Amino acid sequence: xxxxxxxxxxxxxxxxxxxxxxxxxSRDLLADPDEGIFEVCEKAGGPHKVVHxxxxxxxxxxxxxxxxxxxxxQALRETRRLVIEAAEAHGARIMAASTxxxxxxxEQAPTPGERYRRFASTYQETVRRTLVGGMHxxxxxxxxxxxIRVMTALRRYLPLLHALSTSSPFNGGHETGFRSxxxxxxxxxxxTGLPGPLGSWAEYEALxxxxxxxxxxxxxxxxxxxxxxxxxxPTIELRICDLCTRLEDAVSVAALYASLIRRLLRRDRDGGxxxxxxxxxxxxxxxxxxxxxxxxxxxxxxxxxxxVDIDDYAAALVDELADDARALGCEAExxxxxxxxxxxxxxxxxxxxxxxxxxEGDTEDEALRRVVDQxxxxxxxxxx
Length: 384
Known about the structure:
Blueprint: H1 3-8, E1 12-22, H2 36-44, E2 49-52, E3 58-62, H3 69-89, E4 93-95, H4 114-123, H5 125-128, E5 135-140, H6 144-154, H7 158-163, E6 170-171, E7 174-175, H8 182-186, E8 192-193, H9 201-213, E9 224-225, E10 227-229, E11 235-238, H10 247-269, H11 279-292, E12 297-299, E13 307-309, H12 310-320, H13 322-328, H14 331-343, H15 346-359, H16 364-379
Parallel strand pairs: 8-9
Antiparallel strand pairs: 1-3, 1-4, 1-5, 2-3, 5-11, 6-7, 10-11, 12-13
Helix pairs in contact: 2-3, 3-10, 6-10, 10-13, 10-14, 12-14, 15-16
């Protein structure tokens, strides 16, 4: 491959994680955490950013721009360590899960600010109920048109990427039956879910302009799709994922995302992107991933009928992506996706512990507190 061809396949990555701030005594959320947590993070963040989220009980980290998956791992270690140490110095704990097992949305306070005030006024109870956090992975690559074409081609893989990240099986003190209830909560807001297929940057801009002309949105940041072009950066932002409880799971999802992008970039360069599946069929797999996580059976588009076990589907995809993962230096991280499927996600571990504690005699409240403790511990894993 020539230097020019290699340059055209370069990918940069950055990760946003939206954490909960937890009271170490009650294990409930801190509706009014010490502002000193954010002040410490701002001073010590270095190339990373730490910002407020819509609710005061949340804190968001933004890693620096990374040139490899190995750099993503190091950046996530730094950002997690930063917010954990700042929180613990101010009487709080950091929790990496996309819902809190028993916290009530009615007890939370919004972060002051004009944008958040406008959201609260416009969306009313739908936004007040969004007591959820996610993981967003930015990937910078190609030119504007190739980013849109690759974003469209990525849609079919969103259910798998989501299933690997699931961490929100509880909501409001009860088991929901979903491995990711976060997407159900987010679905109450407009302009969420899957974007339609787009073929060029001009087509995307025309869609944004129509939304603005009709005064549905103020800017493109209010298109809360599962995957979208970022407003502030020349990146495609993966937004469907729950917040991975374990850092290494987050790194694996980033490796899969980057490997898929490189594979699709190569096909786009050669004029051979695959035909687009119907959006409605991708949405069917999306719901299955949300409901069952790594126990999913997806629609088998390769054979055109029936279902395929997520393990078989992911194993075939990992083999297909082997050359791209090798070129990106993330073969082990990509293959970890198969380990996640076989051993379970944060959601599976939460449900397993809850059911075990109930069988062993814990009350519902006691079992849910144990779940919080487990997630708090896993949030700190792998930080060195």
